[in-house]
Task: inverse folding
């Protein structure tokens, strides 16, 4: 029987801490749709200040936060948003900007570090003279950290350059900042400075900082007023949300300071995995709390078998493909958990490799 669980599937799997549960139980609440929930107001005020923006709005999920943000900026059907071909909005959000908002995604290739070439972004902006034929470019989206690139961080210099390009062409800039606090900690740049060039930012509360539910979007007062209306349209008006916001306030107070430790544990795991024959991690890509593990060509096992072996020993990892796995560190993973996972990875490759070679 498995007695030890080490859940490395994502930083979304954390459980509410006792402090969060206590805050939720005692939260002062009211009807937020009517604009009177005091705990929601506290969270939104704090997040707006932290991010250096005028206003904020709590939403149930990062997907809804990104969708609302895109729809506010692209308020005419047939508008176009420029985004990376491997970004979360483009790949993992059900095509919501197109199916719900009638917004056309103009894809630009993401580099290995999560950036898009500035010249390629500018080349993708539609010529207004072609408006009879083309969608109208309204928005550029960035993702920081960039999950599909391994949790890589977009620098403040790069973000500023994209912001300047947006202004030059009369466009808006939205940042999918699901793990923006991870980027801020890793880069050593205050989070408000990191998103200064953005017109809007979505920040996930239930990823890196470990709250149980929700995201916050930030921007100007006018932007948030429009966002609040769209949240109601999409079914995100949830009444006494102070119960959820109370846990998020605890997460902001207690867990942002733990992100640096999460990053160190990710690097420790990556370094250890690179000592396991048959596995490879691009050490340069491990900037925050995510580690992508490749099975080297010629190794006589596949990701599915390794994941199953690990699960039997209480270690949960995510399979990305037949030869790639992903693990994500969070504040409820200890250094001891990392060492245990490393020992099991070593055994998994050795045992599964031998079994396949012997035909078992």
Result:
């Amino acid at each position: 029987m498995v007695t030890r669980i080490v859940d490395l599937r994502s930083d979304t799997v954390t459980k509410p801490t006792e402090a969060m549960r206590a805050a939720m139980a005692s939260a002062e609440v009211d009807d937020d749709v009517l604009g009177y929930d005091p705990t929601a107001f506290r969270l939104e005020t704090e997040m707006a200040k932290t991010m250096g923006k005028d206003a904020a709005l709590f939403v149930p999920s990062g997907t809804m936060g990104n969708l609302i943000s895109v729809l506010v900026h692209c308020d005419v059907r047939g508008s176009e948003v420029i985004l990376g071909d491997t970004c979360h909005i483009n790949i993992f959000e059900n095509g919501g900007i197109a199916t719900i908002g009638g917004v056309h995604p103009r894809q630009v290739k993401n580099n290995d570090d999560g950036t898009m070439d500035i010249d390629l972004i500018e080349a993708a902006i539609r010529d207004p003279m072609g408006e009879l034929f083309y969608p109208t470019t309204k928005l550029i989206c960035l993702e920081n950290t960039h999950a599909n690139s391994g949790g890589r961080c977009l620098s403040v210099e790069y973000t500023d350059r994209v912001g300047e390009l947006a202004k030059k062409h009369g466009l808006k800039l939205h940042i999918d900042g699901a793990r923006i606090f991870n980027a801020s900690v890793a880069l050593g740049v205050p989070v408000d400075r990191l998103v200064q060039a953005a017109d809007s930012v979505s920040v996930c509360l239930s990823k890196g900082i470990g709250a149980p539910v929700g995201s916050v979007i930030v921007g100007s007062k006018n932007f948030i007023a429009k966002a609040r209306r769209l949240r109601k349209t999409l079914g995100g008006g949830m009444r006494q949300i102070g119960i959820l916001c109370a846990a998020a306030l605890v997460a902001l107070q207690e867990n942002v300071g733990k992100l640096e430790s999460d990053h160190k544990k990710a690097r420790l795991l990556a370094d250890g995995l690179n000592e396991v024959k048959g596995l490879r991690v691009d050490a340069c890509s491990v900037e925050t709390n995510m580690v992508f593990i490749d099975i080297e060509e010629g190794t006589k096992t596949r990701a599915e078998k390794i994941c199953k072996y690990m699960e039997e020993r209480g270690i949960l990892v995510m399979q990305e493909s037949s030869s790639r796995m992903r693990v994500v560190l969070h504040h409820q993973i200890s250094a001891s958990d990392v060492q245990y996972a490393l020992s099991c990875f070593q055994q998994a490759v050795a045992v599964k490799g031998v079994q396949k070679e012997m035909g078992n």
Observations:
- The longest helix spans residues 335-358.
- The longest strand covers residues 136-143.
- The chain has a mean pLDDT of 96.
- Residues 18-254 form a domain with the Aspartate Aminotransferase; domain 2 fold (CATH 3.40.640.10).
